[in-house]
Amino acid sequence: MLSFMVILLLSAGKLAHAQNVPILPPQIDINRSDSGRNTQANPRVTKPQAGEIAKKRFAGSILRITLVGEGSNQRYQIRMENEGKVFTVFVNAITGRISGGG
User: Fold this and answer.
1) Rounded to a whole number, what is the distance in angstroms from the first to the last CA of the chain?
2) What's the whole-model pTM score?
3) Fold classification of 47-100 (topology level)
């Protein structure tokens, strides 16, 4: 099977070269796990980025940042404190959208 694929790829390369058509590299889906059973979305927003997003929107200091939820509902739970008042801000780990706070 592997040798057939190699021959097929080499033949395609010769044909593309003969027709002066570039061969594109195979595309890899970085969001798909090898097992196909991964239900967790890969966060696109990092923990430090989530903290910066929260600090731009709300005055105060960050006490703790925790990644919570699953899939498209994955978000950072950020505990903040301002003038003795403790509050929670959520930052979506995929979109960076803020909810909660104040």
Assistant:
1) 61
2) 0.57
3) Nuclear Transport Factor 2; Chain: A, (3.10.450)
